[in-house]
Amino acid sequence: MNLKDPKRPVFTISIAAELLGVHPRTLRIYEEEGLICPQRRGQYRLYCEDDIDRIQEIIDLIHKRHLNLAGIRAMMDMAERFHLEVDNLFDELLGGG
Fold first, then answer.
1. Per-residue pLDDT band at 1 (split at 50, 70, 90)
2. Most exposed of 11, 26, 47, 56 (fewest Cβ within 10 Å)?
3. Helix axes 69-81, 49-64, angle to 10 degrees
């Protein structure tokens, strides 16, 4: 087992929320909106490092780019389709920020 695997789910919702400086309900909302998909073990959500990075990206888009959740979902969907990072997609579409 690789302890450094960024896809290994190790953080509970309360720990993930604390690491990110948000309320656990915020993470539930992001999941309900289809922005994240943490792994489940029974009734518990478990987050991996990749999930934490994606959530930080969502938080940055809200605060730096002033996007709402629907806008973030659209940007992330486009970035995935075109195999780009969201910031790079923003630069391509809007000519920078």
1. low
2. 56
3. 120
Distances (CA, A) of 75 to 16, 49, 84, 95: 23, 21, 10, 15
Using CA atoms, how far residue 81 sits from 4, 35, 67, in Å, is: 28, 15, 19
pLDDT tens digits along 40-49? 999 999 999 9
Q: What is the pLDDT of residues 11-65, one digit of tens each?
A: 999 999 999 999 999 999 999 999 999 999 999 999 999 999 999 999 999 999 8
User: From residue 4, how far is each of 1, 48, 66 by CA, in Å?
Assistant: 9, 10, 33
